[in-house]
Specification:
The protein contains eleven helices and 16 strands. It has 353 residues and is of the alpha/beta class. The chain folds into two domains: 134 residues, translation initiation factor eif-2b, domain 1 (Four Helix Bundle (Hemerythrin (Met), subunit A), Up-down Bundle), CATH 1.20.120.420; 199 residues, Rossmann fold (3-Layer(aba) Sandwich), CATH 3.40.50.
Length: 353
């Protein structure tokens, strides 16, 4: 069975004059797209979580840079670079934890600086499309590498959404699921619901149902009991930022899942592209952790379920120490028990042909 059969979902697309984003806030009940015609509209969509997932944010930001330069040249043709940089700053500030955002914009800025007085809109668009294509290709490589680590007919457990919705396409941890499923290697995916935005219950479950793959949704608090059952072959998660020593920031709840997996002897795999590694941050203590509104925890879909006067703590991410990670799976290879030396070797290794 060809893996492409499990590759139907796309969350980010360039359309003439703008970016079309699948609005992930309203899935699975509503299939709705948001059209962004300016860089600031792209930044607002990232902040509002119309699009989410570190790789998808990076791809979206790259297209946002194209819009920034287009708009800047229209408004200030004599100083379009300065005008564009103002919009790029807004894009950079839209989500602080996902390192792919800054990585993508740095790459686009290098293209901007390499040209003459005329804005290279066509060149920038080509660069953004190349970045998008590279992300999908990297996901497919990670999928194949990760699938090789799983036993036949595996039952796996996931957290948040790490699929085509969170990337340029195919997915990181769900890319492993797709690749394994293509050869009959998945018997069940247990998807943590992932409070408070329910990315697992809404998005991961939707993707897998769309692809015709088996999925069982778990309340986050049920994951440890599921791991204790002894029939889970691996935990597969993504990453929003990986420090130089392998410490990994991912959706809140990942750290507790890693602790439970270690206690029960279940392999814990982080699946993420090289662009997610932040070599300038020595360890997890230096990773900025975004906190969002208390209402996201105190309410569900706008309806309060906690009493007036109650407070909430709403960190979006937590940091899993590298010592709890069985392996890091990237497009350049697999690092068993990641540490500073292993990450450094990975960053200097060539991308497989």
């Amino acid at each position: 069975m060809d893996a492409v059969l499990y590759d139907k979902v796309r969350a980010v697309e360039w359309r003439e004059g703008g970016v079309r984003l699948l609005d992930q806030r309203v899935l699975p009940s509503t299939l709705r797209y948001e059209e962004c015609a300016t860089a600031r509209e792209v930044a607002a969509a990232i902040t509002a979580m119309v699009v989410r997932g570190a790789p998808a944010i990076g791809v979206t930001a790259a297209y946002g840079a194209v819009l920034a330069v287009t708009e800047a040249y229209r408004r200030v043709p004599t100083d379009w670079r300065a005008a564009a940089r103002a919009d790029l700053t807004v894009l950079r500030e839209s989500r602080p934890t996902a390192v792919n955002l800054g990585w993508a914009l740095d790459r686009m800025e290098r293209v901007m600086e390499a040209v003459g007085a005329e804005p290279p809109v066509a060149t920038l668009l080509t660069a953004a499309r190349r970045l998008h294509d590279e992300d999908i290709a990297a996901n497919r490589r990670m999928g194949a590498l990760g699938a090789a680590l799983l036993p036949p007919k595996a039952r796996v457990l996931t957290h948040c959404n790490t699929g085509a919705l969170a990337t340029g396409g195919y997915g990181t941890a769900l890319g492993v699921v797709r690749a394994a499923a293509a050869v009959g290697g998945i018997s069940m995916v247990y998807a943590d619901e992932t409070r408070p935005w329910l990315q697992g219950a809404r998005l991961t479950a939707w993707e897998l149902v769309e692809e015709g793959l088996p999925v069982t949704v778990l309340a986050d608090g049920a994951a440890a009991a599921r791991l204790r059952s002894g029939d889970i072959a691996a935990v597969l998660v993504g990453a929003d930022r990986i420090a130089a020593n392998g410490d990994t920031a991912n959706k809140i709840g990942t750290y507790g899942l890693a602790v439970s997996a270690r206690h029960h002897g279940v392999p814990f795999y982080v699946v993420a592209p090289i662009s997610t590694i932040d070599a300038a941050t020595p360890d997890g203590r230096g990773i900025p952790i975004e906190e969002r509104a208390e209402s996201e925890v105190l309410c569900c879909q706008g309806v309060a379920h906690s009493p007036a006067g109650a407070r909430a703590w709403n960190p979006v991410f937590d940091v899993t120490p590298a010592v709890l990670i069985t392996a890091l799976i990237t497009e350049r290879g697999v690092v068993q028990h990641p540490d500073t030396e292993g990450i450094a070797r990975l960053l200097t290794s060539p991308i497989p042909a």
